[in-house]
Design brief:
Layout lengths: L28 H16 L1 H12 L10 E2 L7 E2 L4 E2 L1 H5 L1 H8 L3 E6 L5 E5 H17 L7 E5 L4 H12 L3 E4 L6 H11 L3 E5 L1 E4 L2 E4 L1 H9 L8 E5 L13 E3 H7 L9 E2 L3 E7 L7 E6 L1 H14 L8 E4 L6 H13 L3 E5 L10 H9 L3 E4 L1 H10 L2 H4 L8 E4 L6 H11 L6 E3 L34 E4 L11 E6 L9 E2 L3 H9 L6 E9 L5 E6 L3 E4 L2 E4 H9 L4 E11 L3 E10 L1 H4 L4 H15 L8 E4 L13 H8 L15 H8 L1
Parallel strand pairs: 4-17, 6-7, 6-8, 7-14, 8-11, 11-12, 16-17, 16-18, 18-19, 19-20, 29-30
Antiparallel strand pairs: 1-2, 3-13, 4-5, 9-10, 14-15, 15-23, 21-22, 22-24, 24-25, 26-27, 28-29
Bound molecules: 5'-O-[(S)-ethoxy(hydroxy)phosphoryl]adenosine.
The site of 5'-O-[(S)-ethoxy(hydroxy)phosphoryl]adenosine has 24 residues, from helix 11, strand 24 and strand 25.
Amino acid sequence: MSPTSPDTTSPDTEPREDGPTFPPSPEFVADAVANAGLHDAAAADREAFWADQARSLLDWRTPFTQTLDWSDAPFARWFADGELNVAENCLDRHVRAGNGERVAIHFEGARGDTRRITYAELTADVQRAANMLTDLGVGPGDRVVVYLPLIPEAVVTMLAVARIGAVHSVVFGGFSAESLRARIEDAGAKLVVTADGGWRRGTVSPLKPAVDEALTGEGTDTVEHVLVVRRGENDVEWNDDRDRWWHDEFTKAAPEHEAQAFPAETPLFILYTSGTTGKPKGIVHTSGGYLTQAAYTHRNVFDMHPEKDVYWCTADIGWITGHSYVVYGPLANGVTQVLYEGTPDEPQPGRWWDIVDSYGVTVLYTAPTAVRAAMKAGRQIPEARSLETLRLLGSVGEPINPEAWQWYRQVIGHDRTPIVDTWWQTETGAIMISALPGVTKLKPGAAQTPLPGITAEIVDDDGRRVDPGEGGYLTIADPWPSMARGIWNDPDRFVETYWSRFPGRYFAGDGARLDGQGDIWVQGRVDDVMNVSGHRLSTAEIESALVGHEGVAEAAVVGAADETTGQAVVAFVILTAEAAEGVDREATAKELRDWVGKRIGAIAKPRQVVIVPELPKTRSGKIMRRLLRDAAEGRRIGDTTTLADPTIMATIADLM
Ligand code: WTA
């Protein structure tokens, strides 16, 4: 799919060139010197710089001698002859260093239940869980699908899988049975770890039934066992041959587990993400390079001081942010963090801010959509809390509009915290572009500068670097340690999707602009990927779910600007002749929304389904989504002269 012009797809980020800048706070003076040093070191010798990071941030059982092997580009190998154990780096070594009593996780359940888990306890849990997985027949290289709520067992499972050299594939709990099935099949999973259900807004949302349903589907006979955490205490069906309770197996397993070292390029996880086709891509990350950059970025972008910070990233482990900045980055750095199962406002508005106050959170990392939802709820809610421990705020998931940035800083940050706006992707594995605290002067709404060691460049249609003041496509010119190593089962798609648009460059799928001062403003996707509440959704995937419904003849989906979620899914459908007869539009729209929810997951449900007699097509039959986006956003409809039927847009606009 060829990208459209970047200028057509930036909903609400008209860059402001000279936003207010803020001096570094005194907290950061020492770190500023260190961070400036990083820039110099990376500029002097990029590979040596990364090798230094890998050596200083991680413990290697076998030191590597080769930093980067790019001979099989774009399939990189970093630190390939080195050996390490990822879980040991996140756990045992902190205990050995005398920090076993430090809290690793302050867990807060949605209903207010809490658990305080030290590094020594987490290490013990993961050791036992590693034995449990081994007892269930999981070995190095086997795939384990994780379909869990945001509870400590999710973190324990991921680390236990890593510890034994197996590969996890976490599927967000909001995905449907069908999405889960497709991911189990693609990965050829041997084990599925789930829960009876999780807590959400005072009720249990069941998970196990979706696993049961997924496993009745095709291509799932690789699964030998389903391991079930008891959490929701809802009734579940039980298959004695296949299903095992976590608490039974965990108790039976031996407590001690000696971590084995694995080569740095051992696959660590697969994470599926939406692309421009109907089929999600299984992005593959490996061990040494991924952990190096997760730890490096977490340490430097968030200015972490593990001995005193209390860090909280609000992402779910079902997304890459939860992988890199809930599990691997913070734990590799030995940081204390909060893990919260629920939503920002349950059971009372301001629950998030109560959590900040009760644990003394110092660094908060969240998404613009959450900031905008808090803005909408009203500043009196956070203003009734202290929030005085916060000293740094982070943003990720989509471009943060300057209004939300300012509100975040003023109301949550009390005008004293820097905000780091971090750009990265599932494929990049870790943060690539961000301000560095103490070094960069902050600019509301701009992701700003590539981190030391990262060569992010904006290029024009011909792959030439643009000058300050110009826009183009965001690309990465040199390999980086946490880059994806491929797409599971589909190396060709990896090359074609990311490396063929601009030879020798990774093309991120985002449009971006360089301002007069050389800062980067990311403007959002230029392909058919939507960004709803910071979650990637594919127009093609939702369209193919819609046409899978017997009443639908054709469908076109667009992402329309939305005040809270950034973008929202709007679907235009043509019904079959039978379905169209005497149709109840409202009931059919609801049925189709639910249908998408069932096929993909609740997050993909269109905000609006518009039943139309025809779609805006060119004479060659190409659907002009740009015009549909105009209609969905209530704008004046653009140029319709190339349409086969120039009157159709007026009809559609009337139906909105
Ligand atoms: C968008 C999330 C602007 C972008 C970590 C990217 C952003 C996609 C930012 C990746 C940001 C993420 N500013 N846009 N700070 N962060 N994005 O794979 O469009 O879920 O391509 O990874 O989110 O989404 P993904």
